[in-house]
Amino acid sequence: MAPVRKQAFAPAAAAAVLYLGLAWLRQAGFIGIYWGQIMDLALITTIQAVGLSLIYGFAGQFSLGHAAFYGLGAYVAAFVTRAFGGNTLTFALALAAGAATAGLVALLIGLPILRLRSDYLGIATLGFGIIVKVLLDNADKLSPVLGGARGMAGIPRLTTFHWVFWLAVLSVWLARNLVRSSHGRSCIAVREDEVAADIMGLDTTQFKTLAFVVGCAMAGLAGGLYAHLYSFLHPSSFDFLKSFDVLLVVVLGGLGSLTGTVVTAIGWVFLLEALRGVLGQQFLDWRGVVYALVLIVLMILRPQGLMGGREISLDGVLGRAAARGGAGRGAA
């Protein structure tokens, strides 16, 4: 049992060491305020991308409305802190409210639309994303605080590196455990062949809904963090292109690979910011063309993505190292 406990403890210890190291670099000034904020955005994008990876990468449900749930979580969380004050307790409640709202809405729309398959599901989620965008544009008719097309300002800046780091770790841990559970394996079976899974007695709609709700709740959580990082929200931040951004991250990382999703999400955010700093407004004008070219080249050269469905885990590395050490001692 001792090796098992060590392997279970190792990822948590590694996360703590990484957190302390990054926090020290930021505190000492080696990572400036600007790039520290980009790091926070990269971790928020990681949470959002891990949610879509559950939906598309592991359950095989092609969703084009992920930014809609991102926006719902952002606006609900911002509304809570605007209404009840900006302290640690209300911030935690706001994040929970944003994630719960996104998950509940995903459940309500998922039950009817997840009976669709392939392109039809993508069109349905795209339509829902457009509905949410129009709703946010006219949200000031529901409450003047929401701002409508002018945007929502005055949001307290409560998102810190501590919050985004540990919530990103929690999201990856939850996704990993879900994928390795019997429910996660059922979702993978639905992805591989939904007809065969249905014939074998799996309630395919139930497992698709499970992945959809959990993934959208993660998007809502990421939205709440985003709202309190920049203190301003605008409906244009949650349009179709934002859904395409996170979809591109999941495809680039490799469908069915949490490791690929995490690495690509962090690298993608830093790469885009570096390109924006070098090329300026020209990059923003041609960003859509760059995204399309990257996707086309990837599909031609490496259609399975960067990781190709493989995972890299610390407990797996330690397990292989222990096995090699045991084999070496046995040979000796």
Automatic annotation (TrEMBL):
<feature type="transmembrane region" description="Helical">
    <location>
        <begin position="247"/>
        <end position="272"/>
    </location>
</feature>
<keyword id="KW-0812">Transmembrane</keyword>
<keyword id="KW-0472">Membrane</keyword>
<dbReference type="GO" id="GO:0005886">
    <property type="term" value="C:plasma membrane"/>
</dbReference>
<dbReference type="GO" id="GO:0015658">
    <property type="term" value="F:branched-chain amino acid transmembrane transporter activity"/>
</dbReference>
<feature type="transmembrane region" description="Helical">
    <location>
        <begin position="33"/>
        <end position="55"/>
    </location>
</feature>
<feature type="transmembrane region" description="Helical">
    <location>
        <begin position="67"/>
        <end position="85"/>
    </location>
</feature>
<feature type="transmembrane region" description="Helical">
    <location>
        <begin position="209"/>
        <end position="227"/>
    </location>
</feature>
<dbReference type="InterPro" id="IPR001851">
    <property type="entry name" value="ABC_transp_permease"/>
</dbReference>
<feature type="transmembrane region" description="Helical">
    <location>
        <begin position="284"/>
        <end position="301"/>
    </location>
</feature>
<feature type="transmembrane region" description="Helical">
    <location>
        <begin position="156"/>
        <end position="175"/>
    </location>
</feature>
<protein>
    <submittedName>
        <fullName>Branched-chain amino acid ABC transporter permease protein</fullName>
    </submittedName>
</protein>
<feature type="transmembrane region" description="Helical">
    <location>
        <begin position="120"/>
        <end position="136"/>
    </location>
</feature>
<keyword id="KW-1133">Transmembrane helix</keyword>
<dbReference type="InterPro" id="IPR043428">
    <property type="entry name" value="LivM-like"/>
</dbReference>
<dbReference type="Pfam" id="PF02653">
    <property type="entry name" value="BPD_transp_2"/>
</dbReference>
<feature type="transmembrane region" description="Helical">
    <location>
        <begin position="91"/>
        <end position="113"/>
    </location>
</feature>
<keyword id="KW-1003">Cell membrane</keyword>
